[in-house]
Write a structure and sequence with these properties.
Shape: globular
Largest sheet: 4 strands, mixed
Number of strands: 4
Strand order of the largest sheet: 2-1-3-4
Helix content: 55-70%
């Protein structure tokens, strides 16, 4: 499956990376339908793990999907709670915490295991090699950062169980559980993206060394007859939108809103890059 990505500078050396929201929602819907076989109870989960001789990775994926389903159901229950109730206040705390999640983490989580090819749209003023180098950098740094925080969040989970003696919902435990899951997904996305944009990079760099840039033609970095896991596509429309602002001082909210509308991006995620 091809994932359409958008890359452009927001402020100074800070770049925005995002995935087309319509395509990501479609992929999420497909994932939800394909996960209909996910066990709904601990008993069903135990039966699934013990009945089939699956590899460890498949069993781990099944457990993660089970935990993810439980968390989504719990979050939906908090979201539908009456205004002013304890559950509604807990939902507000959750939104406050989620607002502080880095946008790069959200981007990496959008690179799912089903992605086999990425198409990157970027302004025409940027060099294709620079764009791919930036993608490799965010993927490589993401794999290091999220692996570290994954281990840290998982190590704190047993400690947070001491709050279960209180007559209140164990918010620290569920938050750490979510962060463990989120870092694991971001780590998977980092490794997947790094694999896609690094495949044959040295040979690709040589093949485009003396080739003139054609704005109407995808900048593959490979010979035409080679199958590509990535496509770099310059966009005049994106370039014109960015030129309306000043990269040094940062693009304004109105410009970012127009970019989100034009390329079907999530405004809440894009505005986070402005505050970095």
């Amino acid at each position: 499956m091809k994932a359409r990505l958008i890359a452009f500078p927001v402020k100074g050396r800070t770049w925005c990376f995002s995935r087309c929201i319509d395509q990501f929602r479609s992929n999420s819907a497909q994932s939800q339908s394909s996960s209909s076989t996910t066990p709904s109870t601990f008993r069903d989960l135990y039966k699934s793990l013990s009945s089939d001789s699956k590899p460890i990775s498949a069993n781990a994926e099944l457990v993660v999907d089970f935990v993810s389903s439980k968390m989504n159901n719990s979050w939906t229950g908090l979201e539908k709670a009456p205004q002013g109730s304890l559950k509604n206040k807990i939902h507000g705390v959750g939104l406050w915490l989620l607002a502080r999640v880095q946008p790069s983490e959200i981007f990496l989580k959008s690179i799912t295991k089903e992605v086999t090819e990425v198409e990157v749209t970027y302004p025409t003023s940027l060099n294709a090699r620079l764009v791919r180098r930036r993608l490799r950098h965010i993927a490589m740094s993401g794999s290091i950062i999220h692996k570290k925080y994954l281990y840290g969040s998982a190590a704190l989970l047993p400690v947070s169980t001491v709050f279960m003696v209180l007559p209140l919902p164990n918010i620290p435990f569920f938050w750490l559980l979510y962060r463990t899951y989120s870092h694991w997904r971001a780590l998977q996305g980092s490794e997947k993206l790094l694999h896609l944009v690094s495949d044959g990079s040295d040979r690709g760099a040589d093949s485009t060394k003396d080739t003139p840039k054609d704005e109407n033609k995808p900048q593959h970095g490979y010979h035409e007859l080679t199958a590509l896991p990535w496509i770099l596509r310059p966009s005049k429309e994106l370039e014109e939108l960015i030129r309306r602002g000043n990269i040094d001082t940062g693009l304004g909210k109105s410009i970012l809103a127009d970019i989100c509308k034009t390329f079907n991006l999530n405004p809440q995620q894009i505005l986070k890059y402005q505050k970095l």
